[in-house]
Amino acid sequence: xxxxxxxxxxxxxxxxxxxxxxxxxxxxxxxxxxxxxxxxxxxxxxxxxxxxxxxxxxxxxxxxxxxxxxxxxxxxxxxxxxxxxxxxxxxxxxxxxxxxxxxxxxxxxxxxxxxxxxxxxxxxxxxxxxxxxxxxxxxxxxxxxxxxxxxxxxxxxxxxxxxxxxx
Length: 167
Ligand code: 5GP
Known about the structure:
The chain has helices at residues 7-25, 40-48, 99-109, and strands at residues 2-5, 30-36, 54-64, 72-77, 87-95, 115-123, 136-140, 146-147, 163-165. α3 links the parallel β5 and β6 (115-123). The protein is α/β, with parallel strands linked by helices. The longest helix has 19 residues, at 7-25. The chain has one domain (2-142): Rossmann fold (3-Layer(aba) Sandwich), CATH 3.40.50.2020. Strands 4-3-2-5-6-7 form a six-stranded mixed β-sheet, sandwiched between helices. Strands 1-9-8 form a three-stranded antiparallel β-sheet. The relative contact order is 0.21. α1 crosses α2 (40-48). The N and C termini lie close together (8 Å). The protein binds guanosine-5'-monophosphate. Residues 38, 92-100, 145-147, 151-152 line the site of guanosine-5'-monophosphate.
């Protein structure tokens, strides 16, 4: 396993994003909407570095009809609390084609939150199929399949404390 982003760099960058969010939300309550399962470590590292009142909610989605060109998204686990009127931040592990976040943004906006932003730990700009505005990005990376810090290969490697890649 080769290391792409080590633990120290991850922590430092996540703390920077945490400070940005703290500034933007000035003491407001925030609802973190984590996209299962990969966002869990990022969500926790962000949350513990922010002093605001942060509530957690989770959603799990997957793409079906497998292929990249058709890639539709379905909800495997839906949210269980109302988000109407809330200040929501979608927390995602990685933006690849942009399909998942485009779907989620639309889905959440229909529920009329007070505000909606997106934080993603990683982004692969070269892979984008749909343009999507992401408010906070940890690291832009090249087109490599990455694992660790929540990201899996066949459900494995999620608990690695760094982001690595398999050649
Ligand atoms: P998108 O809808 O933006 O194409 O894909 C987002 C999802 O694809 C991510 O939430 C993640 O589950 C998966 N994904 C994309 N690139 C990678 C990668 O390099 N490694 C892993 N483990 N998952 C990825």
